[in-house]
């Protein structure tokens, strides 16, 4: 009989009555629950609950019965007619309401403003006078959505919603629907998937109307990140269905891809012009910005992201461009909440994050008439780019206007050109190393971000100094001979010299690890390391920057926190023991592929942002000796990029020297932030000198924090010898291939 009862219960559960999707959402919010909390309780994915609340999918047994039980209990606590108010009209002021306290992870949402990938905005077309910074956006506060009513019910202990303009940490009702939305078409209706599972109906029937709706009704965007900055613009991601609905091509032609935009005569661009909307110099491309010139502190600007036009580079965003709208909103929403709302490629976003954290201008103190004026913001790079002709010749790339007087085919050597780059070094294995079984690669986490942390960099123009006394605290470029530094005898601590086999170590002063042969230009961290190793330095000349500061500290902190929070969500915490850390890293991407994409994007934001500091010409008829667009940015700063790379390379060499001095082990190959050692076992723990769980002070340490190392990959020593023999390359850089062992061609060094 009990089996019959069970069968009857199963039938009832399969037909459990559920309220409409809008009511499901209302009940959850009334009790202050987040989508994540419901998903965890029911043991389903976040996107599944989002689908139930949007009406896109319906729950099935056994989850359906549990979900129905939850909703029934909530309906008893929060009857539909208990406390309701009419939703405000689009332009009406939002009435004060009570909301449940937002989930802490979702309440961090910070994003930022303006960016130009290759074409900086001119002063008269920029929708804001300073960079648009970043924002915190709550994901699950009660908000007007598809319904025409908004509940003000709340659970015990819930907090009051805070009006716009409240202190940091409160909910800004101007942006209560989050920083971005993915616009799609479902069953003939246009809908916008927001962060936190919210889905909004979109009444707009054209792109100009969509922009108007976004600014007037959608409540998208994010508050500023820094005090002097500006609020971030809302981001709309257009799916292929949305492109078709609004008269835009689903894909670009080859000609349009090359131009990076659709033609100026396209009907949608004409629609925008008739509605008095403008486009930036980038035009209507994969990352389009539509705006009207700012009036006072008010501005009107919307950013578009079009994945099918390759806005989301698969190298950094994986398959995000092919995701369903709800999943894509989640991926971009997590990135926006922890880094900033994407403003273009990850490189552009990384650069814009620097500006958002240090806006170029601020309001002055009131003058005699009580008026405030725009003035330079201390600690920033300012609003004006350095005149191309004022750059030190040693710091600029070939073809720069500062080098226009050089002969056309002149090749600059180390004494003429600052060449601070990441390592690409390898050596033949010794007989003793060939007798070992494994080659183990370790990789430094967020190496370049760690190199930026605490680094003093120049903020303004450089001053030329002849025969200077070296100052390790003064950012700049130094012409000095470091060929006398002998790695066979170096200091590893104060007054502690050690003997090493210098032939097995790369030089810390060149990317290829070759010992310098005479005077060369170096950034401050490289010269300081020569002094640290116990050797005297006598610079012949220098370009130094007396106006300096730790410009990248906030940038590092934000990206570090984003990386650590996302890795923790993937089950890799910062306080794990070495063995537990290695186990947690094994297959971490498969635990949540969407969050794994966010990790990839965060890493790309670091490297791409630093790369943008020395952006090269991008076609458009440029000729050597002429300025290119990037030079008009205050953030075109190759000296800062060089300093970060210098410090990153030196940080790695310091650990290598400490390790060699303590263990007698030397690296076989180094590629950027990956180091390969020969070992008897396949794990980093088979050669890293841990004692009672503690690493070698100043050496390599396993962990997820930036600057610590993880396991990159293991191959056999026989594999290493075989591929070098196959390509007849005794110094083939094995670090490049250690991850999966696949070698497709001779190492070109590119």
Summarize the structure in words.
Mean pLDDT is 86; it is low at 83-169. The protein is built from 21 helices and 24 strands. A seven-stranded mixed β-sheet has the order 5-4-3-6-9-8-7. The protein has a five-stranded antiparallel β-sheet with strand order 12-22-23-13-24. By secondary structure, it is an alpha+beta fold. Helix content is 29%, strand content 15%. The radius of gyration is 29 Å and the shape is globular. β22 (669-671) and β23 (674-679) form a beta hairpin. α3 crosses α4 (46-54), α12 (346-357) crosses α19 (593-612) and α16 (553-569) packs antiparallel against α19 (593-612).
Can you tag this structure with a few keywords?
alpha+beta; 750 residues; seven-stranded mixed β-sheet; 21 helices; globular; single chain; 15% strand
Uncertain segments of ≥5 residues (pLDDT<50)? 83-169
| Number of helical elements | 21
- Strands ordered across the widest β-sheet: 5-4-3-6-9-8-7
Bin the helical content: 25-40%
- Rounded radius of gyration (Å): 29 Å
Calculate the terminal CA-CA distance, rounded to whole Å: 73 Å
- Portion in beta strands: 5-15%
> What's the total count of β strands?
24
**Class from helix and strand fractions:** alpha+beta
Largest sheet: 7 strands, mixed
Backbone shape: globular
Mean pLDDT: 86
